[in-house]
Fold this protein.
Amino acid sequence: MTNSLNMIIVVLLTYLLNCCSSSNKDSRDEILYWCSNNNDEIKFAKLSTDEWNKNNPNDQVKYQAVPEGRSSEEIILAAVVGNTTPDIYSNMWQGDVEAYAQAGVLVALDSLNGFLDFLYERCDSSVVEEIKSLDGHIYQIPWKINPIMLIYNVNLINDLELNGPPKTYSEVFNASQKFQKDFDNDGYVDRWFGYSEVEVTWWQRFFDFYPLYLAASGGAPLVKNNRAAFNNKYAIEVFSFLQEMYNKNYFSKEKLSARQDVFLAGVTATRFVGPWEIAHAEKFKPKGFEYEYNFMPVPDDHIGPVYTYGDPKNIVIFKTCKDPQAAWNYVKTMISDEGDLKLLSLTNQLPRRKKLNTNPFFSDYFLKNPKMKIFADQSEYVKGTDASPVLKEIFDLISQQYEACVVYGMKTPEQAINDAADAVNLLFLE
Amino acid sequence: MLVSPYLVHFFLFVAFPVAFSIVLTFHKWNIISPMEYTGLNNYIRLFNDKTFFKSIGNTLIFLVIHIPLQIIVALFLAEILNQKIKLRGAFRGAFFLPVIVSGVVVTILWQQLYGYDTGLLNRLLTGIGIAKVGWLTDPNIAMSSIALMATWKNVGLYIILFLVGLQTVPTQYYEAADLEGATHMQKFFKITLPMINPTIFMVVILSTIGGFSLFIEPYIMTGGGPLNSTVSAVLYIYKQGFFYYHMGYAATLGLFFAFIILAVVVIQKKFIEKDH
Amino acid sequence: MKKFKSTLFYVSLTVSALIFVYPFYWMIIGSIAPENEIGNLTLMPKSLTLSSYSQMLDKIPIGGAFINSLIVASSITIGVLIFGSMIGYALSKLVFKGRDLIFYIIIFTMTLPFQITLIPQYIIMVKFGWIDTYLALIVPYLINALSIIMFRQYFKSIPDSLIDAARIDGCNELQIIFRILWPNSMPAIITIGIITFMASWNEVLWPLIVIRDESLMTMPQLVTLFAVGGRAESQLGVKLASAVMLALPIVVAYLFFQKYFIQSMASTGIKE
């Protein structure tokens, strides 16, 4: 009867009205580049686009800053869903790329002219393998990294009369034991050798478990071909090490981050952190405070270089881009020698390229910024994340076992790693 | 006609979603990629999902602590208020205050009260010589702490409901009992309780349905920890759907959980109605 | 003996009242105390400061969120009152085919747990392009089964003669609802209005799902994200300040309309 008819018409109208909301993106002539809203990176974007636009009147590039961090993920997601993606995005976390690649919203860069040649010039083959998607194509180009290393308080370490900063697990235990003190004898420890958040949030593991795992295993993967690959002795050793550190109260279980900066205050002697800490430390360090970086600690029987997690951010081009080749030409200038030097000097973040520590083009910068030199050395042995569309959840599942084993001591490391691997494999069932 | 807006709304927001939900359970979808048919995979995954069942267990633990506690406290205070009390309105107003305020406010507040080192509760305890309690850090009691907070928040509402119920008990019964020399306690257990059975029943059903939607409190207070002891079912579903974007799997979890809720409510109804 | 019992009662009531009110008091003074004192606070801080509030105002657009909540909660309340009364009227006073069926459908939807419809409702919002718009926050809540039932119940008690007289005077159905029924149903309208407003003001799960743009977030949503995320930088005072701000509007309304609040909540229980 007429009522049902009315109803159907109303519903149809509503649907039509809304799904056909036009995106006036099509009227965009310039190439749109989304950069992070970090002040230094905005400076970089401005310089880079200005120079390009001078020489390329037909392919103007416009930059726009978007917030970094958790919200940038959501902004990209919203843009993908609403079909309002930019042409170029430079802060895509490597772990996010696979999901978008599989959704078909990214341009396969290896199909562009000159891309592969440029890529092999910039990065060595292990890195290229790392950034390949599961379908064999390449949807991202490495831009920058911030390797996680061990920062230590030089004076406090010297006081312990060791042979420099600890490099193996035994050395760490030894140093921690010497360092642990209860100054006022109230039964509560007052200083700890190091600190890492005990929170179960998935990305916290980038500051403890994951870099240690990469260091111990020489850059081994967590997942491979949609199966857990971390069920090995290295992961178990890392869990054992951390479990012991918490068990003996060498790392604090209390939320020290609620206090004033404990590293600068000397309440802790070390931290696992990246180069961004340098700017913070220089600004707030007390008089006489000295700090240095060293490699992540490794198991006693470790041989070979010490890898770590690099928190890589890469550049992608979205399929909504009308002229990917032109966009790629611009991107090339961002990551040329001159572009990388600009990145270093303006933002103090390292470009992900081979032989950064020996390339004479950059030696001047490292002379002027000696604290960054060790990061350049480390950059040869840096790993990002494996290609998987469910990376967040993998880290979340590992975190849950981490909490049970390392923080609460309720499981053995073997059990925990096993349970984590089982849970991860269940994921791939969906 | 007048009812047509309802029909449109019903179709859009009830009928279609339920149907689509069922369809979704057989697919894999993360919003950005096209939907992919996966048959019974989501169901297989569900039955192997220890954390999901733990979350349902957590929710049940919450209900088992929260509901009796709430009824006892609410009845106790309502019974007192039902006597000839001066300033009744003021007391009632005080008890009702937490009810109207957002759960977010209550959670932020109690997170501070429950703090291990600087929280008010632990400071009071150490002040009188008792050891600190890991309200939110001890996996065995974290959920109880949330249940305690939820009781504090909602009990005002149930005091009011019980007051209404208490006032329906005819005074003649009490007068007759007085003649026989009954004590207050005797009157309460022999007359009041049986008479307000319907009210108690209603309180149980309302609290149960409300308790099954427990979400924002664990979300803010503990994020589900420690050791997943405070993940409520809704929190887990939310995470699966809106954090990992496993839309198909989340729909499966939602459907399953909805059945559990319906089952519990039906059982409660039968159990309590039997008493009549 | 009576005196003892009476004192016992008053003591219990006072202690209980304190338990319910003191935490709010603590919250308020915590928000105006300097950060380092909050850990030791019990009755009065040694000094007062508004820095928590100024920091909070700097970090989050709480004023905007307040306006968003106001717009959303008001729209929903008005919508629920209008549609609820329309449909309640149709179900209680009019006769038409399928009337009973619709009534049972409405009851059925009340028993349906929202957990089933949550995900698909989100997907509908995505498909319609309503994510990050007021529409997503308002439209799904415009029609509320409980309000329909309550209106229907209340209207049943209004004499048919009143309505028939209006019809004879030439009123159409809508005019009947708004000119005749509404003025005579003020208790129901106030009750349903308050319940709906309170519920939509405090709703937080749905906004968390459909609104990602900070400028459109509702107040409870913004405060939640503020408390859970790192923006507050573990500053207790700032978190407490945001909680106070969130509580303020409803508490103010409560202080003025306490009688109505309590009556409304009581009557939902009776209807069961």
